[in-house]
Amino acid sequence: MDDFGLKAMRSPASDDLYEVIDGRYQKGSTIVTTNRAFSEWPELFDNAVLASAAIDRLAHGATHLIIKGDSYRARGTPKAAGAGSKK
């Protein structure tokens, strides 16, 4: 899953996502990229219990990589302030 949490989910999307996570639990690798902390997931799932269960399954035995700095996609693009101005 790339960019998880850009928008909150409504049922049945949150139920479906939980089913995918649960179905893959201890059977295959799952990679999730997100700018959201686990503490924000209950509001994204719109169901604190489902969010907690999903986090438990994803985090169990997981390797967490926290990358700080500018977005890879943003590299090489002009900054918003002063972009395109000529002196």
Describe it.
- This protein has 87 residues and is mostly helical.
- Helix content is 33%, strand content 0%.
- It has three helices and no strands.
- It has helices at residues 13-24, 41-45, 48-59.
- Helix 1 (13-24) runs parallel beside helix 3.
- Rg (C-alpha, Å): 17 Å
Poorly predicted segments: none
Strand content: under 5%
Largest sheet: none
By secondary-structure content and strand pairing, the structural class works out as mainly alpha
Amino-to-carboxy terminus distance: 43 Å
Q: Count the strands? A: 0
Mean pLDDT score: 86
**For this entry, what is the oligomeric state of its chains?**
single chain
**Overall form:** globular
| H and E order | HHH
Contiguous helical run count: 3
Considering DSSP H and I runs of 4 or more, what fraction of the residues is helical?
Answer: 25-40%
Condensed summary:
With 87 residues, the chain is mostly helical.
Key features?
globular; mainly alpha; 87 residues
Describe the secondary structure blueprint for this structure.
Blueprint: H1 13-24, H2 41-45, H3 48-59
Helix pairs in contact: 1-3
